[in-house]
Amino acid sequence: MNSESKLSQTANSSFTMDDFAKALEKHDYQFQKGQVVHGKVFQLDHDGAYVDIGGKSSAFLPRDEASLRAVTDLSEVLPLQEDLEFLVIRDQDAEGQVTLSRKQLEIQHVWEKLLQMQENSQTVQVRVTGVNKGGVTVDINSLRGFIPRSHLAERDNLEALKGQSLTVGFLEINRNTNKLILSQRLAARSANFSLLEPGQLVEGKVTGIKPFGVFVDLDGMSALLHIKQVSQKFIESLDKVFQVGQIIKAIIIDLDEGKGRVALSTRVLENFPGELLENMDEVMATAEARANRASNKTAE
């Protein structure tokens, strides 16, 4: 080999080493807070775990960031050399080490799951952990939620609810402000809705009388009997027809679960226009037979 090719080879090899160093630098992962990364735990100690995530130096996961649930043995939730997902919760320090969390990742997943449940109008079981003037605090998948007093079935003795499990629906979910407002009434309404269908005869109590219609309570759910649906005959004043506290029967003509609306009708129970106004007791006493006849007419 002549001297020229020796020089060339030396130049090439030194270039390759430089290039290799630059390539290492270029591929020094710039991990950032909030980023989800994959890695393998290679060492456990009393304070936490060391994780290989492909960076210059290992990452560290503090013991209290290992899981949402209380952990006594880290190896239960952080098996060695198994590919796992982590959330970066602190940027690189002077040594290039980032801090990781499995717990915060689990919390993220819980929020996402709850949002999905809210979109699907689903209910969830929660445990009451505390009481204050405005309502109760609850544990929901290890997150802290709140049920306002007005959205509880039991509003007088809140202390008695401590430790109890309640079925609730979602009023407000805000991940940014950690706001999780729940409602037992919403869940009850949702459960009741599943038992209702148009054409069904229901019984309820008159809770309010307005110029446009009558509000009727159906096992904790409010329904509206509009003035136009009371009778086939014109009505001047509903106060002369109904009384608050009165029990009436009516047919469901429309349901809107999203808005929590139930529309009722008594006019379809009449054999002739104005019968309800002339003889309500008779119409109510024979409501089931009349409802069956009305549904048969609709089916024809």
Structure at a glance:
With 300 residues, this protein is of the alpha+beta class. The chain has seven helices and 15 strands.
Task: Please describe what this structure looks like.
With 300 residues, the protein is of the alpha+beta class. Residues 5-13 have low confidence and may be disordered. It folds into three domains: 36-101, OB fold (Dihydrolipoamide Acetyltransferase, E2P) (Beta Barrel), CATH 2.40.50.140; 119-189, Beta Barrel (OB fold (Dihydrolipoamide Acetyltransferase, E2P)), CATH 2.40.50; 197-299, Beta Barrel (OB fold (Dihydrolipoamide Acetyltransferase, E2P)). The strands form three sheets. The chain has a five-stranded antiparallel beta sheet. The protein has helices at residues 3-26, 74-77, 103-119, 184-193, 275-278, 280-285, 287-299; strands spanning 36-45, 48-52, 59-62, 83-90, 99-101, 124-132, 135-140, 143-148, 165-174, 179-183, 201-210, 213-218, 221-226, 247-256, 261-265. The chain is built from seven helices and 15 strands.
Could you tell me the number of beta strands? 15
Biggest sheet descriptor = 5 strands, antiparallel
CATH class of the largest domain: Mainly Beta
User: Gyration radius, to the nearest Å?
Assistant: 33 Å
Estimate what percentage of residues fall within beta strands. Answer: 25-35%
Helix tally equals 7
The termini sit apart by 104 Å
Percent of residues in helical segments?
25-40%
Corresponding CATH superfamily of the largest domain:
Nucleic acid-binding proteins
Helices and strands, in order, run as HEEEHEEHEEEEEHEEEEEHHH
